[in-house]
Specification:
Shape of chain B: flat
Oligomer: heterodimer
Order of helices and strands of chain A: HHHHHHHHHHH
Number of strands of chain B: 0
Largest sheet of chain B: none
Distance between the termini of chain A: 16 Å
Helix content of chain B: over 70%
Number of helices of chain A: 11
Shape of chain A: elongated
Largest sheet of chain A: none
Strand content of chain A: under 5%
Largest interface: A-B, 51 and 60 residues
Strand content of chain B: under 5%
Number of domains of chain A: 1
Structural class of chain B: mainly alpha
Radius of gyration of chain B: 21 Å
Radius of gyration of chain A: 17 Å
Number of helices of chain B: 8
Distance between the termini of chain B: 48 Å
Chain lengths: ~200, ~240
Amino acid sequence: MNNQTLAAKDFITVGLFTALLFVVEFACGMLGYLHPYVVASYVILIPLVGAIPMMLFYSKVEKFGMITIMSILLAIIMFVTGMGYLGAPLIILSGLIADLIAKSGNYKSFRKTVLSYGIFSLWVCANYFPVIVSAKAYREDLLSGGFSAEYCDALFRAINTKTILILVILCFVFGCIGAFLGKAVVKKHFEKAGIV
Amino acid sequence: MDTTITLKIPHIHLDPRTKLFMVFVVSSIVLMTATTPLAWVLRIMITLVPLLLLFSEGRGISALCFGLLYTVALLLMKFFLSTQSTGVVMALLTGYCGIVVQFLPAMITAWYLIRTTQIGEFLSAMQKMHIPDGLAISLAVLMRFFPTIKEEYGGIRDAMKMRGIMLGGGHASKMIEYRLIPLLFSCVSIGDELSAAAITRGLGGNKKRSSATELKLTGIDLLLMALFAILAVAFIIAKYL
């Protein structure tokens, strides 16, 4: 079992959990249309809820590359669902760093897992990237795309160059908190059932 | 020709590469909002093609649902809502119509790709495009899993309804837990079965895999690719010039 190259089984695991993570993201994403402030609170919601499938995923990761591939898949999904390609390099970068951190703990150390998941969660922030980089054009696009002016104003009040740092930190922190939460859930349900 | 044939829609089965190209084009266009009437027309045309293709593959019901949703959102947006609309309900409606009109075309195309492509076909297409095997397998599983998750979730929702655990009743954390955990359980076991099946079929071996279905770009594939390329270029011109 100490084979370091990824086998078909690993790729299947990656695909499966990416699908689950996307479902979580999508469900949370739907809430964003209630109010733009909810869009900003993705940094709290998604890392927390996503931690449950992700901690299960981390318990199955044994080799380098799985987390990176997951981030590539996420970047592809984000593109296909219309979130743009600007955030893609950031998503993949956060995945790669997360993978390296987890690797340094040999994919066993829980402390490294927490840190790794915190970094991995930053992919949520990567989706704000187009909002910040091309704020003005994005606003025009939203307005002509049928979003109300009120929504746009609130959106840019919540997400701009000043708040992004706070959002990134929040994202990281809630990623770490989520890791503990997810671990507890996994322990409660899956370890008892003998799945992990 | 007899009379019953009038309702029959020709069956068009496209090459996965054509579908991937369509997904790529639609996703790129979805990034840009339509600003001029011409751009709107192009956008709607691009949405219609995958809808018709869904019909032709015998997925009429989902095509109808998608089409209806898109039309309603489009009409609401054009005639009832404006950027000046205020108030909670209006803002909500504007938001939802906005997202539907904006992103649904990408969803339809992606759904079309997912529902009408067999895994074997997809992997063979990936191989022909020289995508690394690992990425191709992950992508194939990812794609295949959305319908599965939908089905599994339906079952779980029914079960929870019977137990009286419903949306809005009780705690949010409980709601998440009672839905997500069973979903994870069933998905993990399906994943295990899938790996076993995949390994039996020689996935992940060192040899180059052969495929039972031979992929070939036919005339209709080329026609659709050309159509989408033209539509994309026309859309960009209509938006920026």
